[in-house]
Amino acid sequence: MTQFYILLAIFLWSSLGIVIRLAAVPVHILIFYALIISGVLQGTYIIAKGLYREIAGVTKIKYPLLLGVVSAVNMLTYYFAFKETTVANAVLTHYTAPVIVAVLAVVFLKEKLSLLLMSAMLLASAGLWIMLNGLSLGEQQSAGIVAGTVSGVAYALIVIFGRLYSRQYHPVVLTFLVNTTIIMLLAPFIREFPRHAVWSYLFMGVVHSTIAPVLYYRGLRDVTATRTAVLGYLEPLCAILLAMFFLHEMPGIRSLYGGILILFSGYLTIRGKHEATS
Predict the structure, then answer these.
(1) How buried is 255 (Cβ within 10 angstroms: 0-12 exposed, 13-18 middle, 19+ buried)?
(2) Using CA atoms, how far apart are residues 19 and 72, in angstroms rounded to an integer?
């Protein structure tokens, strides 16, 4: 049942690209107002259930604040990628995350650099090169692919921090603290309220910023980070299929070839981690 929480969250998040495209507003504005709505919903629930007692002092909230900063980077770069390149390019580059997790473990946790991990790194690099080949750095497609890759780094950190700290907090409390941090970071840059996109603020605030993360953090309580990463590979598939259906956007041949290499590199990384711990 706990895996179902993560699967449902992933399916809901896979519709992000469509909403971002249809909203047609700057990504920081879209994120800010969506999180305001989700903050009201989550804050009301926290007060009604007395969960505010979990928020006590700086030492208690410093980890959600750190997770909030990383989540802000993830959201801004991921949303930007959806606006500047195809949905396929955005989600496939985003899913370099498992390889990046393994690389960070080598650097910061002094884990050994295995032959399998080196192969995965080469495959992921080759996949990105194929997707970027033929594009100049000044073009939108290239900027979107780079942003998607940066969001993959941030997502890798979210998986690690979420796994470390999710058991210490109620899922709604953790989501509220993370979203509040992002709101505070974005507030100085908000100068307008595009009324034509109110529907997108409501939809994203309820679905993408409240229901999905609560389900995700709830699932992380009992599902390992490795299994979570495996389940996460359904998001590119769902996102590409939804983009084909709603946006009539067919992925290019370079996106398919490069994406297959990236996804396979992630599979190798996860397989190696599983074998090392079994």
Answers:
(1) buried
(2) 18
Please identify which residue in the block is written with the tokens 């983009």.
243
Residues 12, 213: Cα–Cα separation, whole Å: 10
- Rounded-to-integer distance, Cα 85 and Cα 148, Å: 9
Spatial separation of the C-alpha atoms in residues 131 and 147, rounded to whole Å: 13
Averaged pLDDT of the chain? 81
- Which residue is it, tokens 């941030």? 154
The alpha helices in the chain, defined as continuous H runs, are 2-13, 16-23, 27-49, 58-84, 87-94, 97-108, 115-132, 140-165, 171-186, 198-203, 212-220, 225-232, 234-242, 253-277
pLDDT at residue 234 greater than cutoff 90:
no
Amino acid at 194: P
Q: What is the pTM of this model?
A: 0.78
Q: Check if the beta carbon of residue 12 is closer than 8 Å to that of residue 211.
A: yes
Enter the tokens of residue 87.
């949905």
| Average pLDDT of span 187-195 | 94
- What would the pLDDT profile of 76-93 be if each residue is shown by its tens digit? 999 999 988 888 888 888
- What distance in Å separates the CA atoms of residue 224 and residue 76, rounded to the nearest whole number? 26
Using alpha carbons, select from 199, 217, 171 the residue that is nearest to residue 37: 199
Question: Which residues touch 13 (CB under 8 Å, ≥6 apart)?
Answer: 208, 212, 235
Q: Would you say 78 and 151 are in contact if contact means Cβ atoms under 8 Å apart? A: yes
Query: What pLDDT, on a 0 to 100 scale, did the predictor assign at position 137?
Result: 44
Half-sphere exposure (CA, 13 Å, Cβ side) for 53?
4
Look at 278 and 56; give whichever has higher pLDDT: 56
Q: Has residue 25 got a pLDDT over 70? A: yes
